[in-house]
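seq:
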Amino acid sequence: MFRVILIVLLVTFSTAINGKFVPTHSAVLDEDNYYLYWLYTKETITFEVQAKTTGYVGFGISPNGGMANSDIVIGWVKDGQKYFKDRFATGKSTPVVDTSQDWTLVTASDNGTWTSLRFTRKLKTCDTKQDIDITESTARVIWSYHTADPASETGTLPQHTKRGTKSLQLLSYGAGLLKTPTIPDDAIYFDILQPNVSVPSDDTTYYCAGFKIPEYSQKHHVIKMEPVIQKGHETLVHHILVYACYKPVNDSLHGFHGVCQNKNMPKEFNCISTMFAWAIGGGAFYFPEHTGYPLGAEDSPKFLIIETHFDNPNKRSDYVDASGFRLTLTTKLRQYDAAILANGHAVTHGEIIPPGVANFKTVGICPSQCTSQAMASQPQGVKIFYALLHSHLLGRKIHVRHIRNGIELPLISFDNEYDFNYQEGRILEKEVTLLPGDEIRTECVTDSTARTSLTLGGRSTREEMCLSFLMFYPAIDLTRCLSSPIPKYLINIAVSDASNINITTGNIMNLHKLHVLGPPQYAGQSLYQLYNSSVNWKDDVTVRKFEKLLATSYHQADCKMPGRIHYPVEIFMPSNITKPLPMENNDLCTATTSGVSAFMAQSIAYIFMTVFLVLFR
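struct:
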């Protein structure tokens, strides 16, 4: 029996390496010149690159999109001979040959026009010095090619003819799939586009437009959401949100548009139920086959608001934009109505990031009180199947944590290599059950080393956000669950005796409008000025004390159902996590014997099994 199992395993391994390559994912790295295909298992990943050249081809994983400290392979075919090496880049020079050859060439070819390389490696090689692990986080892929083959494999390589970088989700259940779900024959679509708006010359603009949903005689499900970004505006359009209006909106407001914060905007546009969310770098989204977003039913929204964030750092005044969404619908209803929940840090000045700090964590909480009330009629909970993670320029990592009765469960979603310019949503590998009373914490790790003053939460690109948009089913009456630390409770980071500080009343979340009344040495300062001038942000002990304070002091909740109706959850103290999630287990890399790496140990075992079968069959 043991021998039969081993034979099956070896045949399976041989088929995977030598059999037909059927990739599941693809990406265009250089239009008409360089294409990437790949597939992965729980332990390995196989790539195929096809470049329009008869010279060498390079491919790699970079920590930041540059060459330095990148994990690279370079290969070519010359006179029928295949050349391929696992390399490591120390800078802008020929990458050195890696001491541990963890990338394996499967096949290579050159047809006189295109060079193709297929190669494979483990997701985690345990070569911590010269390899980069491939995880569910965003990967910065780098690529290059040259028109000629190198003179030798050991000498200096000629500098690439062309190179580039692209952020991708390499381990994805949605992004980059070659095979997309089939759209039913009866499917229809309609577009929600900005009506050729003249984009203001401000660096940041949130622009809103209203749309009356077409009238349908029966219920439909939205099954596909596709961004329609005007050509040439790929960096101008930073993100788009579509809000569903559940209160009546006059049909005459169809097509009305303007800057969202303008005082003349109709009060009916104050809709907060997020219907769809998209951010820069994202592609089309297909709902899983058992879910769809309902439209056309009696209780479905009849009016939508599209909110577009224009990022215009050069303050150009010549942009005219008509970007938005295309929604595909069907009358072939799925099993469940889906909905989306906005989580994380409320977009307020309660998000305070000190200057000059490489790793600083902010947190927004969906408290247990909110999920308890929202799911009172749904005791079995809901299933989360999708996550879109969102931050601004300082964001480096985002974790969506899940706490139940003080015990932390596995992360709902995460990205340890967040890229502001690539915010693709994630279909979860396994749906996550959220029960009444569960807590969701969206945490963002930021890097403010280039800043010299406080960065606050806000809508501008230069301000910060820390949000997660979670799709779930079945739909319940919960559309927003955010929180923010209350600034006045953070004052003891700036003064030794906060009990003597008197603060003006008003907007409790606006650090510029909250002023200190006394004692005299602080009087007249805004809280923003106080935090900037009275705190030594270069002291790491102070920084970490403040970081803890943000996560443990009083928070203001923003817990709403569709129609701007608040659940009675306001000020709360974050719960105590009695059992945090254990640190990642690195047994694969630490379980070595006599200095032999895990990879070598596995290789020796493989050879031993092969010899055993030959000798004793």
